[in-house]
Amino acid sequence: MTSQAADIIMVAGSGRSGTTWLGNVIAGDDRRIIFEPFECRRVAEFAELGMRPYFPPAEAQPRWHSKVEALFSGRIGNDWTDQDRKRLDPERDSGAVVIKEIRANGMLAWLSNNFPCRIVYLVRHPYAVIASRVKQQWDSHIEAYLCQPRLVQDFLAPYLPVIESAQGSVQKHAVMWCLENLVPLRQLPHYPWLFCRYEELAAHPEAEAARLLGLLGLEFTPSRRQALAELSRTCSQKPTDRSTQALTDPRHALPEDERRAVARIINAFGIELYQEQL
Question: Where do the segments described as Disordered lie (predicted)?
């Protein structure tokens, strides 16, 4: 590692995968939360970083190294990154930080190689993520991946036909889910990241939170239990609510014809993480 920084834990994953929830649980009231600092449209220092940056793990990236070091040292921030500061109890502030980020999946290995940050990588079933993004009318931003020649060379070239053949918002968001998770899933066996499935956290919140907090060396404090319960309340809705059913069986998130189309795309990428539920 080439830099020293504060005690940093990064919670990384896709948008609509539960990173805010898990980040709040890990932060409790004694760690400051930095909210999505690599959002290039919101943080001036990273305006030229791009929407979904990929950094080859062994490359130095001196320009961005200095900016990330400044971020980790507390010298970069604004109203966007500090929007969850109210969760911090000034009397319990440990000086440690939790970074919640949905745009850094292609940077995780590089971050691990260059900074003493611990990474928690969160994944949620593609059906649930896609359904949520379509409902929120998110853009897919596939072009943010294809415009990076090194990323295409290192990972995406075999999948260009399936990427380019995607039609409609559901299929494009299926491609996006694959693009977001392909790189970290390939790199995961080679790095000491903590891995968590959203479904496990939602189905067994106490046990899964205790596991993660224990591995991170953090106490399961009342503030962390309170943060854990926040999603539990949002899930305690009517049994007929499709989004609630999706917590226990993601196949409720999309109709059958759309599930088939999504499964075809995920299988084409060779991602087997949720194979039993496609």
Answer: 231-253
